[in-house]
Structures
1.
Amino acid sequence: MMVYNLQKSCKRMRYMDSFLKNRLIHTNLQLLYDCNFKCNICDFWHQEYKELPRLSVAQIEVIAEKLNQVGPQIISIGGGEPLIHKDLVEIVRALARYHFPVMICNGWFVTPEIARTLFAAGMEEISISVDYASSDKHDKQRGMPGAFARAMRGLRILQENRRDPYQRVNMISVIMDDNLEEVEPLLRLCQEMGITYMVTLYSNMRGKKETRVIPKDISPHLLSLKAKYKHFVSLRGYIGKFSQAVREQGIGPCYAGKNLCNIDSNGSVSRCIDRLDEAVGNILTDDMQEIVRKLEVQQKRQDCRACWTSCRGSIETIRHGTQKLGNVFDYYQMTKPVALGKIFS
């Protein structure tokens, strides 16, 4: 246990060094594009993604070692639905050797055994995506009857099976045109389960998703809820820019490529998940330092400002935003240890 804690401490120190020096610190990783849902705010389940490969454990080991040349990453495991991957536990174990694996899933396949093995393998955080407080709305959006009930069950199972105080369970919602009034009921559900709550802003950048006319005054409402509920842990500086992002169709400049990158199920590296067609190289075969150099060149040259999703927004809020003390406090609330068997407070 002492060796384990020393390894984690060294990893955290290296990560903090990278954070303070404005290096790459966050990687979105699509293991696969298969999914058992047909969500109307995602297109990865469409036909053009069905024949794409899944990353293997051996490939993940290469990816983990290559990324470690840059420094420890928060690696956000996604898809598709990552729990469909039969080798997910081994993948998490390989990533956790050097990095901090986190995951967003739909909750359908969560069981006590899976929760225990994922947390034992080194998973730092698991979020389940829920956008509505009623089962009818949620199930319709996900294209799967029973999706809401399984998500609620999954959140409870995950919370009951954490094995380290630093491990977190979140509910995360995509803020859209029709669910702003759903946030407070969702916060109450999270309060009952003792888990934390986060939001991200809808983006229609990738694929052929529909445009949604989101209300332009959403920030004051979300900030008032954040002040009311301690377990609403999204950074105030991040949600404080939602209204601006809606009015101006995004926030610029974008630091994707400098702060974060994306790796798809082929190993191709791009600035973000919405730029899969602009890969700068393949992490399985190419030199990592050259990939980083190309990402930084691309970031400096691009002028994209078309989204304000949490993968970029949270990092940029800390590194480049105002309200430094408030945002640092919020980041602490987002990451502080919570004793096992106890709820967030």
2.
Amino acid sequence: MNASLQQRLRGAVASVILPVLAAGLIAPAAFAQTPAPAPTGVRGAITSVSGDNLVVKTNRGAEQAIKLDKDTRVAAISLANINDIKPGSYIGAAAIPQPDGSQKALEVHVFPPALAGTGDGHRPFDLAPNSTMTNGTVGDVVASNGRTLTLKYKGGEKKIIVPEDVPIVNIEAGDRSLLVVGAKVVVRARKNPDGSLTAASISAGKNGVAPPM
């Protein structure tokens, strides 16, 4: 094969391969820039259970049908005590930012050691206007008018002020046996194309406890 023909063949192959490679590089980049839909939060009590379907009467009085699938995670919520939180504990704190940069807790969730690292970080939360959620490892604990905690997460840390009247709960691994009529739940769900909701996770109160989230 002469040099001229080889050059023409290489040019032809490049004209096919390069656009495919470009498409492969561009498509993921474009996909990465499209934010995932925010999960829908549903808070209330279960009024009906049938197979993989729940009905929850929300705290606003409406009834919401929710589907379960094989990926739905269930957590059990039980009462905890501020004294359970020590340096090295892994917790989550829903809070309101304060002018001095600290966070005033609205509620605190204590994770068992097996779930340390769950949701690590600081992000907006939908419990109250302007509220945040911070999950991390407790550093310093100062007892004064409640507790002030240093909560460390990958990339930063926050000072969390925990007033004495703030609800504190344990979050434990659970299962679907908790999903019974009357159970208080907090559901994080994704909206399907037909408008229905499928639960990604459900936090269910144990022994009558109402999740504060």
